[in-house]
DNA sequence: AGCTACTCCTGGTAGC
DNA sequence: TGCTACCAGGAGTAGC
């Protein structure tokens, strides 16, 4: 599934074909992709606008627009499960799952393709109305260990759902959550406020190292869905140590990798390397 | 506050 | 082989 590394890869590859281009017409074949913005309003917002910049925020892709040099809102895209983005020659066929097409002034066209129709490409006057509540970017300088420790201790949440919470930290999905927790040797059900400083530091470093390496490898492609905008699969799936490896030996200790469900999400772990939280005995009440 | 359940979707696959 | 039933999953929402 497209998570931070996959989205970063998409942004890097489509940005050169989009920045500076004017959108000359649009066509929408699945209206819900627009996320509640009507087709006519969408058309009015984007046609004649120029792409000022393309950036990633968490798993979102923000296309900043301008008209006559002044800001004109933004398109905010999310690939969800199966979305893809391409910039291709005018006669390129996006296939049966093309949802939105934006023709560009250089004769090429941007395509949003999405088999499962969960993806979105929404116009907003202000991108922050959509991405404004996201947590820190895990690879940026404002994601710091002291801040991370503070945020962990301020909440009392299971680690797995907390890592998936985009308001806690932006961009992590099911794959990189499982891989990070394995790398940090932390059980997905451990409570955030009970991590030691050392444990929090392990998790902090694991998240950053794994996301960096996954970006280097252009993300993970283990099914037919995620491909880069050039049609290539990523290669980080070959580095998976727990995700999708249930029943196979742990690369660290050989015990069989387990799969459990946490917050309705398949969760992969090694029960030896990632010891379960100890149920804490209730404080014993004593007479004063 | 934090958890669970439900919704949106369809291709792939397990099971018969 | 051919069919059906079920599953995966990011994020939003509702309810406890």
Brief characterization of the structure:
This protein is an alpha+beta fold and 288 residues long. Helix content is 25%, strand content 23%.
Q: How would you describe what is shown here?
A:
The chain is α+β, with helices and mostly antiparallel strands and 288 residues long. It has two domains: 128 residues, MutM-like, N-terminal (N-terminal domain of MutM-like DNA repair proteins); 125 residues, Orthogonal Bundle (Helicase, Ruva Protein, domain 3). 25% of the residues lie in helices and 23% in strands. It contains seven helices and ten strands. The strands form three sheets. The protein has a four-stranded antiparallel sheet with strand order 1-6-7-5, with helices on one face. Strands 2-3-4-8 form a four-stranded antiparallel sheet. Strand 2 and strand 3 form a beta hairpin. Helix 4 crosses helix 7 and helix 6 crosses helix 7. It is elongated, with a radius of gyration of 21 Å. The relative contact order is 0.14. The C terminus is likely disordered. The structure holds a DNA duplex (16 and 16 nucleotides).
């Amino acid at each position: 599934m497209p998570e931070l590394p996959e989205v970063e890869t998409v942004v890097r590859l489509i940005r050169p074909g989009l920045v500076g281009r004017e959108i000359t017409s649009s066509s929408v074949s699945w209206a819900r992709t627009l996320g509640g913005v009507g087709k006519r309003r969408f058309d009015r917002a984007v046609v004649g606008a120029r792409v000022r910049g393309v950036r990633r925020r968490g798993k979102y892709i923000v296309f900043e627009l301008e008209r006559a040099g002044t800001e004109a809102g933004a398109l905010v895209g999310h690939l969800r499960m199966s979305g893809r983005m391409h910039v291709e020659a005018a006669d390129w066929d996006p296939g049966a799952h093309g949802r939105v097409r934006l023709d560009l002034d250089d004769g090429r066209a941007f395509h949003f393709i999405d088999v499962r129709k969960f993806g979105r490409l929404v116009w907003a006057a202000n991108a922050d109305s959509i991405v404004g509540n996201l947590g820190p970017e895990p690879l940026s300088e404002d994601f710091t260990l002291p801040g991370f420790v503070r945020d962990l201790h301020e909440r009392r949440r299971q680690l797995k759902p907390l890592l998936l919470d985009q308001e806690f930290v932006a961009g992590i999905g099911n794959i990189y959550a499982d891989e990070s927790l394995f790398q940090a040797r932390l059980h997905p059900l451990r409570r955030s406020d009970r991590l030691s400083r050392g444990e929090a530091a392990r998790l902090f470093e694991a998240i950053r190292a794994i996301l960096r390496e996954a970006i280097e490898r252009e993300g993970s492609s283990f099914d037919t869905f995620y491909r880069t905008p050039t049609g290539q699969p990523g290669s980080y799936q070959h580095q998976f140590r727990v995700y999708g490896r249930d029943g196979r030996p742990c690369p660290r200790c050989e015990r069989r990798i387990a799969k459990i469900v946490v917050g309705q999400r398949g969760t992969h772990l090694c029960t030896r390397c990632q010891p379960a939280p100890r149920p804490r005995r209730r404080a014993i009440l004593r007479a004063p």
